[in-house]
Amino acid sequence: MPKHTFGRRTLLTTAAATAATAAVAGPLSATASAAAFGYTDDGSNYVVDTGASLVFKVSKTNGDLTSLVHKGTEYQGYGGKNSHVESGLGTSTVTIKQSGPTILISVVYGTLKLYYAARSGENNVYVWTNKADTSVSATRYILRVRAGLFLNDQPDSYTYAPTTIEASDVFAKSDGQTRSKHYSKLRVIDYDYVGWTTGSVGLYVVRSNHEKASGGPFYRSLLRHQSADGGGLYEILYYGENQTEAQRFGLQGPYVIALTDGGAPSSSLYHANIDTSWADSLGISGYVAPSARGRVAGVGITGRDTAYAYTVGIANSDAQYWASARASDGYFSITGALPGTYTLTVYKGELAVYTGSVTVTAGGTTTLNTIAIPSSNDPSNASAIWRIGNWDGTPSGFKNADLMTYAHPSDSRAASWTGNVVIGSGTETSAFPCYLWKDVNSGIIVYFKLTAAQLAAAHTLRIGVTTAYANGRPQITVNDTYTSAVPTPPAQPSTRSLTVGSYRGNNYTFTYSIPASAWQTDAGTYNTLKIYVASGSGTTSYLSAGTSIDAIDLLA
User: Fold this and answer.
1) Which of 20, 71, 147, 339 sits at 20 to 30 Å (Cα–Cα) from 325?
2) Across the beta sheet with 102-109, what order do the strands follow?
């Protein structure tokens, strides 16, 4: 993931940051790189020296990470808060043990178990979280970072702005630009780590393989944010916003808190590369060694549209995994999977175009013959009189689509959400808004002409959507003579989506059979298609019922 360099902002002046660092770090700073691998007990915390340049503390009371000192500088904490699961666990049982070059801290809070591990000579903290059930809320681990230490290189997630415009987590600046911790831009498949660098020191959270998270490869959620009080880096354990899957339980990790000399974290820490065999005998609850996992390999995929990237995912109620298919032939390899039987899905972009079943065995490789995607599974293969957008499971190419992954719809950078579309203009897709709301732009018009032969026949209109808010779904009229029934709403997430940077729900295609009697009688006259948003739910404006568009076409 490239480091962003736009819109940099310092959170404290250099002098203020230095003073704050000295005040908070205290006596530990002078001995932070004392070099002897081991741990001590200061009465309130277990203090771990990695023997490199990192010393960290874990509370003996609740398992919070209370200090993270690298080369004499304290990085942990903002607003008087520690780093922890969710908003912090309550009183827990916290123990520590050393096994040769590894120190493991175990935290038990009810049915939840949290582990921190240190390796001799490394500036890394390895973390695992084991959720057994829903009795303990555990959506994320948040590393809280003190203000003034890093520039803000992702301004859209900078959460300090003067005006709150939605809930308590979306804000607006005086120039109308919006900010929220939700505005990460990235899907899970797009990144290996999140963090910041000054050029001489980097602080990152390297994500786990998310096998016990939910939502699949294209899910979007909190990654990082900065405010006037400091910053936060997240590992998502299970996030409910715009979530399409049930919560999975079990051990997730390791995810790694990594400090560097300014560069990116070592690729050996990435979930696809990490070797955790050193943890095999540590007694981590729910841990499955690499040797007890399996692999799925596919020799190729036919029936692909080479203009699109393809992803192969496997998932069941216990775990999820995915890999990119090779552009040249569709070869793919999914490694490190827990044994079991999975549903295998091939995605064109983010649109499922093939499903099957595969079984993973411990220590083995399941090799699949070439997967053939049936032509009928890709809606792009249907002959269309006209089409707006492309069938790829996303609103890509529609008006404001890219901006909506990192801004609120009311953002001053957004183009007008209204405006009608003329087929044949060459701007059909770029002029059509990516989202439709009942209270904002319902009733948008598409103008199109048909030939005499086309006017004499009935046709099917398809509208593909990627998610919906408050059961928003499209109802249509044609030439004010034909009005469709209100469609039954498909299953979609019940939380906010369109206003918090996510269009990723359940892809669904609505179809409408339009009789020949609905068309204009003259081939030279424009037909008018009006698309409304129907729903009895939602509130007003951008929180009225809405939906996200994948593609719209009229079939031949």
Assistant:
1) 339
2) 93-99, 102-109, 112-119, 124-131, 250-260, 202-206, 193-197
Provide Rg for the chain, Cα atoms. Answer: 26
Rounded CA separation 304/297 (Å): 18
Phi-psi region of 215 (alpha: psi -120 to 50; beta: other; left: phi over 0): left
Per the document, the length of the chain is 556
Q: Is 554 exposed, middle or buried (0-12, 13-18, 19+ CB in 10 A)?
A: buried
Backbone dihedral angles phi then psi of residue 542, each to the nearest 5 degrees: -80, -5
Question: What is the 3-class SS of 185-199, one letter each residue?
Answer: CCCHHHCCEEEEECC
Strands 193-197, 45-49: pairing is unpaired
| Residue 448 scores a pLDDT above 90 | yes
User: How is residue 355 written in tokens?
Assistant: 């499903």
Name the H helices within 257-390.
none
Please, what is the average pLDDT of the chain? 92
CA dihedral sign, ordered 152, 156, 160, 161: positive
Write the DSSP assignment of 352-377 as a string of letters. EEEEEEEEE-TT-EEEEPPEE--GGG
Contact 188, 179 (CB under 8 A): no
Closest C-alpha among 344, 399, 410 to residue 165: 410
How is residue 235 written in tokens?
Answer: 């590992």
Distance (Å, whole) CA 149 – CA 71: 13
Give me the sign of the Cα torsion angle 510, 497, 6, 258.
Answer: negative
